[in-house]
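Example 3.
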Amino acid sequence: MSNAKDIFLKEATTASADGPQRIFINKALGGYYANRDIQKARYRDWEKARDAASLAKWTAVNDLANTLETFVKKFEGNGGKVHWARDAAEARNIILKLIADAKAKAVVKSKCMTTEEIHLNDALEKAGYSVVESDLGEFIQQLRGEAPYHFVFPCMHVKREEISALFTKHLGTAPTNSPEELTMIARRHLRQLYVDADVGITGANFLIAETGQISITENEGNARLTAALPRVHIALSGIEKVVKNLDDLSVLLPMLATAGAGQPMTCYNTLYSGPQQPGECDGPKEFHLVLLDNARTQLLADPEQRDALHCIRCGACLNVCPIFKNIGGLAYGTTYQGPIGSVITPHLRGLEQWNHLSGASSLCGACTDACPVRIDLHHHLLHNRRNANQASPNLFDRLFHRGFNFVISRPRLFAFGGRVFRFTLPVLKKIPLPYLSAWLKTRDLPPAPAQSFREQWKESNHG
Amino acid sequence: MRISLFIPCFVDQLAPQVGLASVKVLKKLGHEIEFRSEQTCCGQPSFNSGQWDVAREGAIRTLKVFRDAEVVVGPSGSCVAMIKKFYPELLKNTSHAAEADALAQRTFEFSEFIVRKLGITDVGASLKKKVTYHDGCHAMRELRIKEEPRQLLRAVRGLELIETEESESCCGFGGLFAVKFPMISTAMVQVKGGALARTGADYVVSSDPSCLLQIGGWLTREGKPIRPMHIAEVLAEGLTQ
C-alpha cells in the first residue's frame, strides 16, 4: 500500500465516521476518568507528585550513561546477563540466538510494547517458534491478528460478544457473555502453556540502578508466571526505562497506576532480582536483559524534546486525547499510539514519513496536563512540525504561508483583501476551494458582515 | 488606562461585533481605547504549521505595532496565547527576545484583563438567558484562565450559568487543523456540540471567537437551537454608555 500518511488519512476517515464505535470507546474511558479522579484526590498534592515523578525520570535520563552503567554492574552482579542492541534488527537477532541456544520450542510472552516495536512475534514465528501472548488483552489481539489498539488497554475496542466468538472459533469453547467466564477460558488455555514453554519473554517497566533489579507492573499475574516458570527469562527494555533507586520507584509506581488506569496501585508490582541462585528451588536458570537503543540516544541528543524519554508508558495521554478517542488506536499505524506516539514515532521511525501525526492535532494540550511526568507533549508536536518544515518543506504550504504573509504584512492590502473576501464569500462558497470546501462540508460559515471592525472603528468617531 | 486593542484578523473581517463589544465594555469601565490599524494577523497559522520563519516575521511586525502601548487587550485566548507564550519562544536568542518578553507581560486576554488586572467581576451587564461556558484550550491550558470568565458571567444580571459535561473538551478547531484534517475536527465538534446542545442553554459563551466559529458553524448546520456568543458580547448586553 501507499505511504504512512495516506494509510493514516484513510483509517482516520473511516474510524471518525464510525459513531457507535466512538461512543463505545468514550464509554469505556468514562469509568477510567471517575476512578482516576478518585485516586488523584488521595494524593496530598497531585501536582507536586508530578514534579517528583518528573524529577525522578529527569535525574536518571539526564545522566543516562552513568545510570545505565551502575544498573548493568548490579544486574550482572546478581547473575543476569545484559545484551546491548543498537536497533530492532539487533535486538531480534539477540533474542533469536538466546532462544536457539536454549534449544527452546515454545515461547510464552507477557505484555511488552518494546517487543511490538521490534516486531518480535513475526521474527519468532518466521523462525519456527510458537509464541503465545499471556496478557489477556494481547492474547485477544493475537487471536484477532491485529496490533494493540492502545498500548495499555490493547483490546479496549473489542466487545464482549466479539471476544466470545473469537474464543469459540479459535479455542472451541461455548459462547458466553460473562467476563469472568471469558477470563477463565483464557486462563485455562494459557496455564499449560507456561509450563510447556522453555523461554519466557517479558518487558520491564523500570530498571533500578541502585539494586540491579527490573520492575514489572501488571494486573493479571501472567508476567510473574512468564518470568518464573520457563527455564530462561529474557526481558527486553528500552534504555530509558532506568531509574536511580527504589525511592524514585516508590513515586513512579503509584503514579503509573493512577494516571494510566485510575488504580491506586496496579495489582502486581514485582522486582526481579536475577536467575535462580544456588540453594533456591525455583525461578529461571538464565536471566537475560536486552537493552534497546533504537533511536533513543538520538532523542536524548535533542535538548528540546529529550523529556519524551521520561515516558513511563502509562497511557494517560491517550485516555484524554480527543484525537485518539475519535480515530481510535489502530489508525495511527504505530507501536505507540496517541500523543506520545505522535511525538516519538517521528524520532523512532523518521520525521518525513511520520510528521503527519504531529499535524493531526488541534494542540489542545489535554495530554500535557495529564502526563504524570510532565512531558511537554503538545508543544513537541509543534516542534516536530517546525523540524519537518525545515528538513523538507512542502511546496504548497510554503506558497500558502508566504502568500498569506505577503498580505498580512501590508495592512492596506489586508483590509482590501478582507473586503474582497467578504463580498465574494457567497460565490467562493460554491467553488471547490482547498480548505474552504473542507470546512463547508460539515460546518456553516456565518454570513460575512458588510463592514470589518477596522472600517467601523474608522467611521465611528475614531477615524 | 489607555488600552490598545488587539483584534484578531478573522474577528476584524468576520466577527467585528466581538471587537465592538470589547470596546463598549472597556470604555464603560472608564478606560481609553485605541486601535492601531497597522495590526493584522499575529502569525499563528504559520507558527502552528511549522513555518516558524514566516511566523517570526509576523511576530516582529506585531511587536512593532504595540511597541509603546501601555497595555494590549485581545478578545481571543488563542491569539493572546500566541503573543504571551509563543512569541517569546519564537524570538528567543534573537535581538527581539527582550521586547517579546516585555509585550507578553503587558498583553492580556479580555476576561483575564478585567478580572485579574482591573480586579472587576461585575461590569454591570444584564442578559436574561441560560448560558454555558466553553473553555478554549489556549485560554485554559496555555494561559490558565478558567474561573475569570465564569466570575464575570455569574455577575451578569438575569444570567443563568450552567456547566457542560464536556466543558474541557477541545471543540476541534485547531486553526488549519480544522481544514487539513476535517474528518477528525468534525468528529470532535460532534462530541462538543452534542454536549452543548444537551444542556438546553440559549447560548454557548467563550472567550475564543475561533472556537465559536467552529462550534457555531456545526450547530447551525445541524439545526441545533443553541447559539454562539462571545463573552465580550454578553458583557456588553444591557450596558448604558
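The first helix of chain A runs from residue 4 to 16. The first strand of chain A starts at residue 81 and ends at 85.
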